[in-house]
Each structure stands twice: as structure tokens, then as C-alpha cells.
Amino acid sequence: MSTDQAPVDPTKPDLEESTNVAQAHEEVTRSAAAASREQQLRENGLEPVSIWIMIAGFIVAVVGGSVLLSSENLFDYETFTKDGYVRGEFETGGSTIPTALAGDAYLKRGAALYKNCASCHGTGGAGVAGVYPPLAGSEWVTGSGKVPALVMIHGVSGPISVKGNDYNGAMPPMADGWSDFDIAALTYYLQNNFGNNVGEIFSAEQIAEIRTISKDYGKKPFSSADLETHLSAEFTAKPLTPETLLNIKTGEVVDADQ
Length: 258
Known about the structure:
The strands form 2 sheets. The protein has a two-stranded antiparallel sheet. Strands 2-3 form a two-stranded antiparallel ribbon. It is mainly α. The model has no long low-confidence stretch (mean pLDDT 82). The termini are far apart. Strand 2 and strand 3 form a beta hairpin. The chain contains 9 helices and 4 strands; from the N terminus they run H-H-E-H-H-H-H-E-E-H-H-H-E. Helix 3 crosses helix 7 (180-191) and helix 6 packs across helix 8. The protein has 2 domains: 49-82; 99-247, Cytochrome c-like domain (Cytochrome Bc1 Complex, Chain D, domain 2). The longest helix is centred in the first third of the chain and has 25 residues, at 21-45.
């Protein structure tokens, strides 16, 4: 049995009946165009820099370098100002140093430092009965500025009586690394808050006296007996007056005329 088939023409493509010749041709054309564009982009990116651009850049670099090297006063103000020219003076609007009266400066700084104490002695200085002694009305706080300052520096160890109640002192030193301004400010804050009203504004010279006592005593904590020797002690140096202006950042005395 024979089957009649059309002879195969090798000069024509052997296409299936489902192939859309026009569509296939269009896809081949698009692919060829995309490949051509891609090849062109690669070739453009590899083009060498123009020799004239290189020459121009070299000239600019040489001229600029020679100008900079040949002039030591290129950016000197005096060299480029006209004769008789005077620089304008600008008003600063007064002193740029932030100042406040000594008492106000101490209260502000002391309030910030008291956050280190409030967890034990309470925000109102009432303490915790039988555990942490009160600062409000405490004879140790109001008796002398030396005592609270020494307690900050050295801490307290052993039994201590406060306002008729007994406590077991176990306070660690708090003022390690503090400045004289910090110690004076917190001492003033304790003595003039929580109903306390001592009013003395400590000077740098008074804090120096406290530092001397501290140095002579060594590193150990104070006992109540040690503190009692300073409870009624007066300073040799004079305190600051309420009219004294302080730099609120450093605690230094500022001349009112500045």
C-alpha cells in the first residue's frame, strides 16, 4: 500500500501547519533589532576619551597647581583688602555667658543632681522609715554644710540617729568625679528644700575647705561620730552673697560688668 506525499523542497522551511509565518518573522526581526541596540550600547561605552579633553584637563591642572604653589598668601585676608578698609564690628547683644544669681544657679543644678538621691530618700526628702533616713528636717543636713558635703564624697557607715530614729548607715559615696560646683549646688539644694531653710550660698573657697577635710580623712566612709565633729564647725572662708552672679554651666563667679 502506498501513500501519496508531496516531495520535500529543501529550499523551503519545513513548517508545521500551526506556525504563523508572519508572527514568527516579526519576532525574529524584533530580536535582531534588540541585539543590534545592545551591541551598539556596549561599543559606545568602550569608546576612548577624546584626546582634546585629556589635553584640556592637563592644562587646567598645570595652571591651577602653579597658581597655588606660587602664592603663599592666596587666601590671606590682609593681602586682598583695600587700603583703608576696616572690618565691621558686630554687636553681640551682651554677654554670651549664661548667668544666674548664685542661689538660683545652685537650686537648678542641685535639683538635677538630687535625682541620684531620690530613689532612697524620696522625691520629697522624707526617706523610708527604718531604712533610709529623712533629709527634711534632718539635723545632719541643716547643722553644717560640711556634713552633707562630706557624706556625698565619702558615704556613711554604721549606726546613725536622725530626728530621734535609729538607722544603720550604709550609704555609698555619691560624688566621685563631681566638681566643686556640683557639691556646692547639691548641698545648697538639700539645705533649702523639703522645709529646710539654711540660706548659706557656698563659695569655692568653702568647698576647698571640705576637700581638705576629705583628703586628710582618706577613702573610708564616715561614721556618725566622725560627722559629729564637723556638725557645728563653721567655715573659715566667707560664703557668696545672694547678688553674686554665677555661670550656670561651670559655677564660676561672673563679673556683672561682663
